[in-house]
């Protein structure tokens, strides 16, 4: 389950019309959500609050081996219109699962962002500041986001930890999202690392038309039932004189597709010889399945993982069913937006070595919870690898 601060950062992206899913780093996001989910270790409690539309705080305490905790603060120059109460949050906004790709949208025109008063421009670029202090380790994390233009965003993250070389690390990332394509340029003080990523989407794209505001411009991509994307990344560390290269492709169905939604990806790291393929399918309204096969062309080693997620939905009360029969409406058709009738999700995965992970995430009244465990079925005497419970409350 997403941390509350991650939820608020996603709300900032939505409020500022930024699509975080149109980048090379999210090419395999669906498979990672279904197969690489983290199972809690020990007990972790957190309390968060969006005290105003611009300011959020979060406090956590855990006993995974040792008792520790963290303090988090977040400020957004853009008022966030997000439901922050844990009793009312849409679970699909905080639980990572099968990721449905939406139709691409043409970026905002620069003049849409202009605000004039008395003949002078008074608009400001949206920005977000975030910091988290871990205790008693005194490790500090910080993040600065700034929307430079409708198609560009600057992201600077910092970690201060005595165990890291030079006591910390700074990562600067300049992202550009033009809809049809996206690019990322990064620099990290760790090994003086330089990198570049790119992603290109094939298919139809809306033509440029700056004569109308977003509310009246029909700029959705039309007709395609699926999207084919290809991308690559290249990075080089100046201090250790080493580099890396990877490339990948993805095909995913879009909302216009009338069958089961599915996503296929293929990624390749030619220098290391790693090849990875994934296939995920939404096999029903509340079930998703995923498989991943990894192979190394140099060592001939391979790995297979399969996983699934099952969403639990609320049942319609008898009064609603009777009303639906009288009005001719499907009794199971929700009256609210998708996801508001979700009460929880069960995730499970297993690999060829019989390592099993199980996770149940949901809500009980005012609390969000995640309970999970890891098993090694080959070791009968020590079958449990990790067991934990995480509870979140936000207001």
TrEMBL record:
One of its GO terms (biological process) is phospholipid transport. Keywords: Membrane, Mitochondrion, Mitochondrion outer membrane, Transmembrane, Transmembrane beta strand. The keyword Electron transport does not apply. One of its GO terms (cellular component) is SAM complex. InterPro entries: Mdm10. Pfam families: MDM10 (PF12519). This is Mitochondrial distribution and morphology protein 10. It comes from Viridothelium virens (Speckled blister lichen).
